[in-house]
Amino acid sequence: MLNNSVQRNFGLDVIRSFAIIMVLIGHLVPDNTINKSLLSIAMIFRGFGVELFFVLSGFLIGKILIQLLNKGLNVSNIKNFYIRRWLRTLPLYYLVFVIYIIIYKFTNPPINVFSDFFLLKQMVFIQNFDIRHMHFFNQSWSLSVEEWFYLLMPLLLVVFSNNKTKLEYLYKNLIKIIIFIALIRFFYVLGFNPADSDFGIRRCIPLRFDALLIGVLFACLKINNIEIFNKLLTKKFLIISFIISILIIIDFYCLYFTKNPFNDFLNIVFYKSFYFSIIPFSFAFLIIFFENNEFINKKLSKILPIKYFFEKTSLYSYSMYLFNLLIMFVFDVLFVNFYHSPILISMYFISLYLISAFVYRYYEKPIMKFRDKF
User: Which residues of 338-355 are buried (b: 16+ CB within 10 A; e: fewer)?
Assistant: First the structure.
């Protein structure tokens, strides 16, 4: 058995809970709403939630892989890493995938999912290159980015860290790769400037690896370069990351609700390119602060209702992420005024939480127990 699990940390449970809550709130505003101001706020919540998930995934997976790398990464270790990772993510993904197929079979869907190998693309996580995926299991796009990252990351670490000397400077290679991806994205936008930045950039698998690599970078610094990592834990970096996030939110408002001669420049140079690196860096500082903050992990975690809520929400977050739009669809079909009723929205959240708890206990947890054999 390969013991490559990461011990639970209450601060990271809080971060994961914040991420899923932001996504859920963002999804409460449908894309066809006439209130564009509200939609833009919802898009910020959705975007920030997913970016936070990306960085957190990179940080946790980075810890596992770099610890294995330090001990000596080999074919057996890599195989067990893949088995453990895919036993965690794939069973629930395919369960929800089948549910979506059944629903689309017996309803009047906006697209034909049974043509042009669409379902096969969904099964092997290349649906992000087919715009139809935005009308079928829409939230699965982020899983495509993550699954390909999980597949390629061990191989990348082997290439850039084949001896002890390189291990010490791994973080420098990671920084170079992050900068390279950011520049590729910038020149791609400069050359093609996709009108739909969500489909054309945000969901483009190879152009999003830097968000997860930023998490790996911080994991690498924590394990192999503790002096640098400790310097990053100071409050000034947290304040800087908070200020950056606020400024980006303000800039979003300026971009969408004001007429400014610099808007086109900002849209191309920043929001379609470097934004996707700056926000993850900002969130990385937030993650390491929550992971190591004494008040959060030793005092706040002692308050049982708070501890219970964040631990359970963190545990159920994967189910909540995959099921939320599905359950929202059911509520929208059953209740005409769903999006405008606080009572119905409350019922939706309660239903989602209970279903996710059930799925975690009776589906995810047994699979994870089996996973511990590897």
Answer: bbeeeebeeebbeebbeb
Q: Does some domain include residue 282?
A: yes
Other CB atoms within 10 A of residue 236 CB: 10
Closest by Cα among 196, 52, 195, 188 to 134: 196
Residue range 174-213, pLDDT digits in tens = 999 999 999 999 999 988 888 888 899 999 999 999 999 9
* 18-62 residue pLDDT tens: 999 999 999 999 888 888 778 888 988 999 999 999 999 999 999
Flag whether 127 is in a domain: yes
**Count of all residues that appear for the chain in the document:** 374
Domain count, the chain: 1
pTM above 0.85, yes or no: yes
Is 332 domain-assigned? no
What DSSP line would sit under 211-228, residue for residue?
A: HHHHHHHHHHHHHH-HHH
Tell me the residue range of the domain where 147 lies: 10-289
Q: What is the C-alpha to C-alpha distance for residues 4 and 158, in angstroms, rounded to an integer? A: 17
**Tokens 């999804």 map to which residue?**
27
Q: Give the chain's mean pLDDT.
A: 89
**224 phi, psi to nearest 5 deg:** -105, -15
